[in-house]
Amino acid sequence: MATILGPKRGAAKSLAPDGFERVLAIGALVLLGFVLAALIRGRPYWGQIPTMVWLHLATMTVALGLTPVMLLRRRGDRPHRALGTIWVAAMVLTALISFGIRSVNHGGFSIIHILSVWVLIQVPLIWWSARTHRVAQHRSSVRGMVTGALLIAGFFTFPFNRMLGQFLFG
């Protein structure tokens, strides 16, 4: 099992997934299941979905699908770095594409676009912290990003008369 030296007293700290990361992984799988179910139920309306929304869904689905893999598999090896790079690219693309989706607020930006700005700042820092072996910072930042930008934001795609919510529950 891989370990790192802890910040205090030199105690070894495991890189293995902990309980919180397992919960995040399960949450990502559940959310991915809801997204896929909503898309399948919304099949009659696929032709009405703008290209930017499809691109947003595609990149978000890649990030969401990779999240449990990244949280539960071995860390720090070449496959982890390769998958992490794909995850980072998917998150950045998802955020960038979101700026082209402005149908909710009469063509203007909405409050959710603040999250996109946060992602565009935070995700490169996640990548940088991994590249510079700042493991504790990397782990903490990934947890925050998965919690906020994927799971909480993902949850809010279902209520409030939003497209996936209408597909799944409507």
Task: Describe the 3D structure.
The protein is mainly alpha-helical. 67% of the residues lie in helices and 4% in strands. The protein has helices at 19-41, 51-72, 78-98, 112-131, 135-155, 163-169, and strands at residues 3-5, 12-14. Strands 1-2 form a two-stranded antiparallel ribbon. Helix 1 runs antiparallel to helix 2 and helix 1 (19-41) crosses helix 6 (163-169). The longest helix is centred in the first third of the chain and has 23 residues, at 19-41. Mean pLDDT is 90; it is low at 1-12.
- In whole angstroms, the N-to-C terminal distance is 47 Å
Q: Encode the helix/strand succession as letters.
A: EEHHHHHH
Helices and strands: which structural class? mainly alpha
The number of strands is 2
Structural shape: globular
Largest sheet: 2 strands, antiparallel
The gyration radius over C-alpha positions equals 17 Å
| Uncertain segments | 1-12
Q: Roughly what percent helix?
A: 55-70%
Strands in their spatial order, largest beta sheet: 1-2
Mean pLDDT: 90
Strand content: under 5%
Q: Please count the helical segments.
A: 6
* Oligomeric state of the chains present here: single chain
Question: What labels would you give this structure?
Answer:
170 residues; mainly alpha; 67% helix; 4% strand; disordered N terminus
Give me the secondary-structure topology.
Blueprint: E1 3-5, E2 12-14, H1 19-41, H2 51-72, H3 78-98, H4 112-131, H5 135-155, H6 163-169
Antiparallel strand pairs: 1-2
Helix pairs in contact: 1-2, 1-5, 1-6, 2-3, 3-4, 4-5
